[in-house]
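WP5 quarterly update. Target: PilZ domain-containing protein. Source organism: Thermodesulfovibrio autotrophicus. Length: 175 aa.
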Amino acid sequence: MEETYQRMREFSRVDAVIPLGVRLISPEERQKVKARISGEVSFPHTPSDEPSDKAVAQWIKLINAKLDYLINLWSFRQEGFCELPLTEVNISGGGMSFISDASYNKGDILELKMVLEAPSPVALFLYGEVVKSELINNGYRVAVKFVNIDEDIRDHIVRFVFHRQRQILRQKREL
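Structure tokens (predicted):
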């Protein structure tokens, strides 16, 4: 347990309000869970050489960025990310905590469907093992550590944390 606690503190944490949906994973689903980015499309063959004309290469990159943006918007709507309730969370690259109406047991696996802006929005399906669920005034404070997460997805979370910390610092300077 102490090792787990130390690992979770390897990352900076930040408070934020994000769109979040939580679902308890059944024991049958546990073997299949793996963090992923919604709308991520992998192409079997992508050209490795850029066109020799730099102007054409710039236009292709611009069109590619616009297509990625449209795929993200379509994916957000198709997978219900636009209807997620805003929830206060404390998040880091190792895990997160949030207030829930439901109580969970230590060791439960939760699907955490969320949108993080860092600075452009990314929709994620993350999975977390419940390490703590305690009764507070109006619900339960649930703490999870992320499981089955690749480092590139963790990097999205870390970028979000630093982006949010910069926002907080800017707001403090303006006061």
